[in-house]
Amino acid sequence: MTDLLVRRARLPGHADLQDVVVRDGRIAVVATSGTHLPEPAAGSDEVVDVEGQLVLPGLIDAHCHVDKTLWSGPWVPHSAGPRLVDRIANERTRRTDLGLPSPEYAAALLRHMATLGTTRVRTHTDVDPGLGVAGIESVAKAAAAVEGLIDVEQVAFPQDGVIRRPGTVELLEAALDAGATTLGGIDPAGVDDDPLGQLDALFEIAARRGASIDIHLHDTGSLGAWQFGLVAQRTVAHGLQGKVALSHADAIGTVPDTERLRLIDLLAESGVALVTAAVYDVPVPSVLELAERGVTLAAGSDGIRDLWGPYGNGDMIERAMHIAYRNGVRRDEDIELALDCATHGAARLLGLESYGLVPGAPADLVVVPSRTPAEAVVSRPTRSLVIKNGRVVARDGQLVAV
Ligand SMILES: [Zn+2]
């Protein structure tokens, strides 16, 4: 039985409008509109005619922090000092009074993201001696509340450092027991002042437990570049190619040109991905250079309305626009590389076995009133329809009651 038939869809890479047949939550057939299908039996199938609108695969937010968000809660004016360590300290001081981590705020944000066409997120959840794994449990509760709308996977994130906070290594492993699938890290040199200690601890656990690794690396210049090498060496040594990522990776935008290209080749050879958020004045990697040299680049919102800053709205098409704009690209094919960070690039980062607008992939689709992906990125239109696992979950920016 056909569960859902999406008619007259404009799919990237197809000259003609296509019909997409969904069965059991997965794409079963993609074929030129009107050429192949028996009429669905009346009353047994849902048919959606999207009338030539663009259909994209479900968007992926590959780096956010839903445990930190104040979404749907009070407006909280920013109160931290200007440095990274100031923001870490401010959050530790204020989070409990503000009710963080809050499964209600996290679920509210995840629902909002679903209305924007995001069908999957990788969220970095704080794990530290003050909280233990309560954040992991809080986000798991939020994820359960939005099941069927948006898939959630968690990174156990040592925001406050690993080695400098005794007990954190053990907590990271406990977080895997509590449901996290990826180990996070943070500035092994800049925050921990013990790069070998932090990285050796993370890679030992990851290799033993089959976990992925995704490290926040804000360290700039030669200090950051040196840590690229440490991560690449350990990735290869432990056979973790394709399972390791550097988030932000500010060094790549703060070293000379020849060094930058050496770092990109190092990432390509060691199978280490990059994740960018294109926020504030943080350097943004070149989508052109990374694509040309075969490095996976994914995108995420990073913080959304939290103690780290007031910005962010969870819109991954808007995030792609920021990446394209910060890259200074104007051609359609280059703008599409920015959108790829929130679709296929993110799917590669997460190691999804099946993804996209092809038979066999989960039927996660977002429909927008645009003619090309580049037009969608530039215009950031209201999402006409969001389909998750073959079910319409949002229409015109609003969740559909089920
Ligand atoms: Zn982050």
Automatic annotation (TrEMBL):
Gene3D superfamilies referenced in this protein's UniProt entry, alphabetically: Metal-dependent hydrolases, Urease, subunit C, domain 1
Matches recorded under SUPFAM superfamilies: Composite domain of metallo-dependent hydrolases, Metallo-dependent hydrolases
Enzyme superclass (EC): hydrolase
Gene Ontology MF annotations: cytosine deaminase activity
Domain Amidohydrolase positions: 105-394
Superkingdom of the organism of origin: Bacteria
CDD domains tied to this protein: Bact_CD
UniProt KW keywords: Hydrolase
Enzyme Commission (EC) number: 3.5.4.1
Matches recorded under PANTHER family: BLL3847 PROTEIN, CYTOSINE DEAMINASE
Protein name: Cytosine deaminase
Organism: Nocardioides kongjuensis
